[in-house]
Amino acid sequence: MLRVALPPAVALDPDDPAWPTPMRRAAVMVMLIERAGEIVVPMIVRGADAPVHAGQTALPGGRWEPSDGSMVATALREVGEELGVSAARLRVLGELDDLPTRTGFLVRPVIAELAPGPYTPDPREVQAVFEVPLALFRGDGEDLGVREIGGVRYPLRAYAWDGRRIWGVAARILEIVAAL
Fold first, then answer.
1. What are the pLDDT digits (tens) for 1-49?
2. Residues 176, 154: contact at Cβ < 8 Å?
C-alpha cells in the first residue's frame, strides 16, 4: 500500500478573486485495493441522469455539504451514497491538496485503503464501476496540452483502460497518487 506519510492538505480559498468563476468545494475518494500483488483503484461512470458530469468517468465523490463537517466526511458520505461502501471498510490514509477544475470545483482527494467487499452502486448516480491499475498513471498518457486555472498551469493527460478514457482532474489525482 501507500508507503509515505501525507502532509496536511493545502485548502484553497473558494472565494479567492483569482478564480475565473465562483468555486465550490468537493471531495473524491481514492480507494486503494491490493489484487494479485497490484494496487487498483475503483472508478465510476456517472449515470446519464446524474446532476453533475453525467456520463463521465470519475472517482467517486461530490459536493461538500455544511453538515459534513470535513472534506473527509464528504468523501466518506459520497462513496457510501454512490457505491454503498461503508466507512467501516475504509482506512483513511490522508488527503491531497485541493485541485481546481474548469467546471468551478475545488476538489479534495481523500486517500483510503479499502477492505474486500462488494460495491452496491446507486443506479441513479452510477452507470458502471470498474477498477484500474494505479501503475497505469506512472506511464505516459495521451498529452492533451496544458490547462490554466486561476493562473496555475496544469498538464492535461488522458489514459485508456478497458475501453474507457480517464482524463481531467481524475487522471491528475491518480498521477499524483501513483507518484507517492
1. 555 556 666 677 877 777 777 788 999 999 999 999 999 999 999 876 6
2. no
In contact, 125 and 137? CB cutoff 8 Å: no
What would the DSSP string read from start to end of 110-151?
A: EEEEE-S------TTTEEEEEEEEGGGGGS--EEEEEEEETT
Whole-model pTM: value is 0.89
Residue 52 φ/ψ, nearest 5 degrees: -135, 135
**Alpha carbon distance, N-terminus to C-terminus of the chain:** 10
Give 150's pLDDT tier (boundaries 50, 70, 90). Answer: confident
pLDDT digits (tens, 9 = 90+) for 87-114: 999 999 999 988 888 888 899 999 999 9
Q: How far apart are CA 35 and CA 96, in angstroms?
A: 24
Q: Which domains does the chain have, with CATH numbers?
A: 24-178 (3.90.79.10)
Cβ-based neighbours of 130, under 8 Å, separated by 6 or more: 42, 43, 44, 45, 161, 162, 164
* Distance from C-alpha of 64 to C-alpha of 61, rounded to nearest angstrom: 9
Count of other CB atoms within 10 angstroms of residue 144:
13
| pLDDT for the residue 95 | 93
